[in-house]
Amino acid sequence: MTILITGGLGYIGSHISKIANEKVVIIDNQSNSQLNYKKKLPNAEVFIEDLKYKNVCKIFKNYNIDTVIHLAGLKSVNDSIISPLEYYSNNIISSVELLQAMIKFKINKLIFSSSATVYGNKNKSPLKEDFLTQSINPYGHTKIIIEDIIQNCCASYSNFSAISLRYFNPIGAHSDGSLGDRPKGRPLNLMPLIVDSVFGKKLTVFGNDYPTADGTCLRDYIHVMDLAEAHLICLKNLNNIKYDTFNVGLGMGISVLELIKTFENANKVKVNFEFGERRLGDAAISYADTSKFKNRFNWSPKYNYKSMCRDSWSQNKNN
Ligand code: WQD
User: Fold this and answer.
1) Residue identifier of the C-alpha nearest atom 7 of ligand 1
2) Please, what is the average pLDDT of the chain?
3) Pairwise CA distance, residues 45 & 38, whole Å
């Protein structure tokens, strides 16, 4: 079986590419990846191109693709607020062009990279898949729109089936240290910034006056290896699903401060941080109800917070 991974050179895509048993074809424009893929993903066929209809058709003409894992897209909440039209254009139009090519070549199986951001900041955790989605930023709105587009494709095209995976917060890295969360430019997510703080770039904790035990925000982090594994499980089970959405998280929240302490204890290092103002749009508490995925596929994440912190550090300290 051959799979196409859009955005396969990114943090999550590269981990899926590395552990997939299937032959992997990747299309990625490297807008947010500096991965030396020839060295780190030697078995993957890589096309450095934009996710455009004609580029995808070329791949479908030359490879017998069975399933598409669609990760490509802009993913910064902050940037989406600054440049909403860039996000609507890039994320939605490229997804529609991918779908048009899939329908044309009768490629009927899709796994979509959605996000916990679709729950907004009013839903009460633990967050369930049947909760109302709520767009509080253009990035999250694109995920809601693309989920709906895919669901409508499943309804309209009789053989088309798909799963939308709502990722919580992926952190960690493959134990061999070859891959990691190293976006182009300054990272915005917490874990890469915790790592950088050990090297002296002070981390600002956004708010310590939230209604939580220690005043800092609670999030649900999942090891990127567990997240990659969850995709392979969906790959195996997509024949029996028409359309469905699943949360993929640990199902257990941890505060920013607790994660900092876990990181320090796991790695015997000091995180250099200070408290600052709250960040606009942050939910105080956000963590997953993971029972739907567990009950449907009889699978739960294997890695705990200590191993997530250990693997995040061991991957980055060498870089
Ligand atoms: C986590 C916590 C911050 C940086 C986002 C997207 C989500 C997904 C993951 C793409 C929050 C705090 C952070 C800092 C801090 N991305 N923090 N200081 O916002 O939960 O989720 O990234 O799919 O869709 O919404 O992740 O890592 O930005 O923040 O205190 O310098 O760390 O306030 O509580 P977030 P994050």
Assistant:
1) 117
2) 95
3) 9
